[in-house]
Amino acid sequence: MRLALRAGLLGALLTINWPVAVQATMTVFQAFPEVWLPTSMEINLAMTLALGQVDVRYGLEYHDYRRADVTTKVGIPEAR
Prior knowledge:
This protein is mostly beta strands. The chain is built from no helices and 4 strands.
């Protein structure tokens, strides 16, 4: 499953009206029954400054998920 978030001109969020394009993508998979976890995430940012076009890319990959098996014992302490 691939989820995507795209935003066009984010100049309203900046103090100066700069043309900015942001794209974020996250890919998820069903690691365990009823549990969806991310496998990768990528963020791309493009903006035009006085120096010229600036492109920023950031990627992150997740792997080696393990299911935690935890047991708990709850008891009520005896009165003293």
